[in-house]
Model the fold of this input.
Amino acid sequence: MLIPTYHQFPHSSSIWWLAYQVAIAGMAILTRLNSLQ
Done:
């Protein structure tokens, strides 16, 4: 299952797109952990 916006990026930039998604997920997790504290 791919996010539709993925097709807006060149294939060569797919790694950067994945890294961007991981960064967003990481920030969301950190924010959630900080809110628990």
